[in-house]
Amino acid sequence: MKKTDVDVVVLGTGNAALCAAIAAKEQGASVCMLERAPKSKRGGNSYFTDGAIRCAYGRFQDLRAVLPDLDEEQIQQISMPDYGEEAFMADLLRLTDGQTDQKLANQLVSRSFDTIQWMMKQGVQFTVNENQYYEKDGKRQFWGGLPLKTKNKGVGLVQALFQRAEALGIDIKYDAKTTALKQEDQLKKLIVEIAGEPVEITANAVIFACGGFEANANMRKTHLGNEWEKAVVRGTAFNTGEGLTLALKAGAVRYGQWDGCHAHTTDYHAPKTGDFNKPGDIYKKSSYPLGLIVNVKGERFVDEGADFRNYTYAKYGKETLKQPEQKAFQLFDAQVSPNLRKEYHLPEATCYKADSVEELAEKMDVCPESLANTIRAYNQAVQPGPYNPAIKDGKCTKGVCPPKSNWALTFEKAPFYAFPVTCGITFTFGGIHVSPESEILGDDKRPIAGLFAAGEMVGGLFYHNYPGGSGLMAGAVFGRLAGEQAATFCNRTKPLSSKS
């Protein structure tokens, strides 16, 4: 069996793993990354993300430091609310029903903008999130605390981080399946199959950053419920929970909401797992606050206007999964269709178009009478008032259940559009217990020497729901922390790279 020594081993090659590897290397450690997928499918779930990343930027003036491409004319056209640490924390607490681990949340929030600046130094480029504003009175009015995204979405993010990792000389091994981890005399011995050949790697520290169990149908069924067995996997097919299993065998403990996950409505005919030939989160459907959502019986089942989509899509994906046939339809009329996001206009989008509600129902294979009754009851409940999709305008319904709390326009102007959707799972909320410094904690709540975790493997941040873009930010924050702490640990224990 081949043998090799290294200071830090990082499991995974997504955003969290790459940030961890780069941070450890910057601190002087030798680093080896192990990726179960082939090189052509590297990057984990990060490859598929839309790139929106949430941070406590404070004022727009501060955010401009990471948006160097904005010219003065563009700046004058932007109206952007402040979004500081208090606002970020308030969103986390509100959407998780106050269950987020306060210590972990504090790290995420307080280090978010500094980590954005650090990522920029690593070569990641940022741009304004074009899906986060509406044009009004000649201004781009931003909303929802998510005005920033990585240039060229998740593809651009991981490409930049891989370029930096390779420039630093970080060793990346693909087709690498870690089958065992032994801890001997403060050293970690990993047994890894690399392209089918067994290799023993000895390291001072190991960073687990290889995702949750969202791509494992049996684990989804066990922990999330039977209805999740056939859910569409919106990202990589390689996040099957093996890293979690390996960490638990090494002494880690479960933490967080193991029966919870980030889910999103996605095109009903989307691939069953992420298509590496079509990245960029092109199948999701996020403009539903502008319209209505009905199931195959033609009935509404959620308050489409409860909040901005950033704060409801993770929850409403799950609600869609509970519907008959795990199917629903997002409905829009000609009043709002010009404001639909870009993914609605892609050739991959499934769309039915009609000049009457009854004709639309027939194309949807929904009872025309049932859908017409739903639309009629909704229209009669719409209250007067100014409509503004850039703010929570309070334009609502009364006397219909469920209500629509904001952005309630009558559904009456042809042509009408229906987009069939189902639930797509993005990542699981349950993980392992880590300290605010990314150290893996044992059942005595003490750090297990030399073991760290980041990304989806960190449990305790998200419960029931989550603020859009905070998962990508958490991956970067705790990835960077894990890398720095792992390198510090190596320096205390004499790095293997310095041994003869």
Structural class determined from secondary elements: alpha/beta
CATH topology of the largest domain: FAD/NAD(P)-binding domain
The total number of structural domains is 2
Shape: globular
Q: Could you tell me the radius of gyration in angstroms?
A: 23 Å
What level of helicity do the residues show? Answer: 25-40%
CATH-level-2 architecture of the largest domain: 3-Layer(bba) Sandwich
Q: Runs with pLDDT <50, length 5+?
A: none
Query: Which CATH class of the largest domain?
Result: Alpha Beta
Largest sheet: 8 strands, mixed
Total helical elements: 12
- β-sheet strand percentage: 15-25%
What's the CATH H-level superfamily name of the largest domain?
Answer: FAD/NAD(P)-binding domain
Number of strands: 21
Question: How far is the N terminus from the C terminus?
Answer: 20 Å
Protein name: FAD-dependent oxidoreductase 2 FAD-binding domain-containing protein
GO molecular function, one term: steroid dehydrogenase activity, acting on the CH-CH group of donors
Keywords: FAD, Flavoprotein, Oxidoreductase
Domain FAD-dependent oxidoreductase 2 FAD-binding: 7-470
Q: Which keywords apply here?
A:
21 strands; 500 residues; 2 domains; alpha/beta; 22% strand; 6-stranded mixed sheet; FAD/NAD(P)-binding domain; Flavocytochrome C3, Chain A, domain 1; FAD-oxidoreductase_2; 8-stranded mixed sheet
Structural account:
The chain is α/β, with parallel strands linked by helices and 500 residues long. The protein folds into 2 domains: 329 residues, FAD/NAD(P)-binding domain, CATH 3.50.50.60; 162 residues, Flavocytochrome C3, Chain A, domain 1. It has 12 helices and 21 strands. The strands form 5 sheets. Strands 1, 2, 8, 9, 10, 11, 20 and 21 form an 8-stranded mixed β-sheet that branches. Strands 12, 14, 15, 16, 17 and 18 form a 6-stranded mixed β-sheet that branches. It has a 3-stranded mixed β-sheet with strand order 3-6-5. A hairpin with a 2-residue loop joins strand 9 and strand 10. It is globular. The two termini are 20 Å apart. GO terms for molecular function: steroid dehydrogenase activity, acting on the CH-CH group of donors.
